[in-house]
């Protein structure tokens, strides 16, 4: 989903040894001192987070963006899309891709003044993995030895049966060596493991987190990143301010960041044009026609390409969507090129693969269900037995999804004769709550922004049984087995080959409908003189100069 920085450096991986190099930067503005900082502030657009801000329980971009700013992890992802590099880690070493020795930089601080130690990572990961805590991202810890002892599942998905009590509260694969060193033993060799460590789920948590309730902490989070939390007024604003004791490379050059929560992206755009908003990550679709957004913003308009895919998902827990022929028929009935041309005015590209091709290990063109083939769609639809009743396609109405979701619904209706209708849910927070509660009685928008740069991130969270974002409850034992083999492969090459096989099984099942690859159109105010976007298109707040 998120964390990105500017500095240079890379993972150097050998056949028997992996080392994340200590990231040194040659950029003049890296490691900026407090003397370079100003007391300026900016206002950026945002959406109401679904949950209190706990890293391992945040799976959506509204809250995820804030967590990325509040926390710094072991590694980070350069804005230019390069290989991961060290952040809080001094070194990450392995001789077998199974046992990782991690050394952290000494005497960095949390926002409450306490020192970040090795145990803050180990305790945070154990808490996130322990299933009674209910962290949505718990599956990201499945690589670690002993995960099965701390994480059990409900056998009938929120039915009368309950998940059995875990055997342990801590994973056997985590060991604190001393204040600055800890050891991670995985269940199997996993070459991609260091790449994942920049994702927000793997952030450290302060001792204060474990002294109270997670929900209370999440309403007033204490991080270790370049900004600290000030306040959160629900559905209005989240305020952040510079953490002056931040000692890593990317220090803030401004003081305050105010995240204004909008219920309507056209209102945000009006504020951007008038100078009342300093950054908007995605301008409304309505402003793309005739390049109006470029005319409105001039040199403040920013076009970028990001590893994001627009997706519509099936609630496979609903019996009406269990037939794979029906799902494929619906996908084949969608003219992605027409949506790209007429709705996005060429600013987004038709999706033709299951993982965004900007991602390492992803293969273009492997989504056979992404073709537009009305004849085949009708044949499969007839074979499936059809669809009874109205087909609702849900989207959150506080961003620009109405136009393209209505276009998809109309195409399905025209090409298959299904009574399809696009239905808006007022806010992203409520929309996501309904999805996570498995209350969707129709298809729903479910775009994916990669969490870390590897094809594994496009398979395990979305399509493996119990995956953190497998919201439609898709399950295929063959996909699970291949993904497990791929995740435990000793080299990235072997891993990517096995994930390719898993994707072929996913393609046959069509659990979701990839629609477009993300092209992002952002804008900033005249106040901002210099800024950068992260590798996933978010504002890098540490780059902002006024």
Automatic annotation (TrEMBL):
Where are the residues of the annotated region Disordered?
Answer: 28-59, 151-170
Which Gene3D superfamilies is this protein grouped with? Dipeptide-binding Protein, Domain 1 (3.90.76.10), Dipeptide-binding Protein, Domain 3 (3.10.105.10), Periplasmic binding protein-like II (3.40.190.10)
Its protein name is: Oligopeptide transport system substrate-binding protein
Occurrences of domain Solute-binding protein family (ranges): 84-469
The record, for InterPro entries, names: Peptide/Ni-bd, SBP_5, SBP_5_dom
- Transmembrane ranges, per UniProt, are none
Q: Where is the composition biased (Basic and acidic residues)?
A: 158-168
